Task: structure prediction
Amino acid sequence: RKEVEQDPGPFNVPEGATVAFNCTYSNSASQSFFWYRQDCRKEPKLLMSVYSSGNEDGRFTAQLNRASQYISLLIRDSKLSDSATYLCVVSNTGKLIFGQGTTLQVKP
Amino acid sequence: SQTIHQWPATLVQPVGSPLSLECTVEGTSNPNLYWYRQAAGRGLQLLFYSVGIGQISSEVPQNLSASRPQDRQFILSSKKLLLSDSGFYLCAWSAHSPGELFFGEGSRLTVL
Result:
């Protein structure tokens, strides 16, 4: 079993749609959680950290369920510029473990 | 401000040839440094990480090696490349562990 698992997609949605990505992790001792964004053929960049109480940054909402070992990212009012691959990232013993990513395509 | 530079950006190498990818960080001291590889259609795989000069931890047994000759310099090497070494190699740094990773622009390696 992979340490961090994501549905690779692609998710094809129209502009303005709400889309949710899920991620599961296998190590119950994982300490920190993040979502990174990677544009095509570019390096990943931090989108947001994920806190136990859930957190929001504009149109983006991240949630963590430690009991189920599950992380989610919700994007509201999708924009064309949101098209990218979204990487779920989990910290284990100080190392960041990346999921394979979920690809989002927002269509006009 | 901190910056990270990685080179070369693209390279095509024959099987059995050597490899050297270099990464430097500016604007910070004693960073944690990382080498990741991303194969086509796959996630980022941590290859090496370093918490200080001369301190290298290897995550995956392979024909690659890493060195940290200076505080802000991280080098990825191979003596003989394999076809399976093709991929997108990313150097990254963080101020502490765990913490936000800042990636270089990547080196795209094709082994023929």
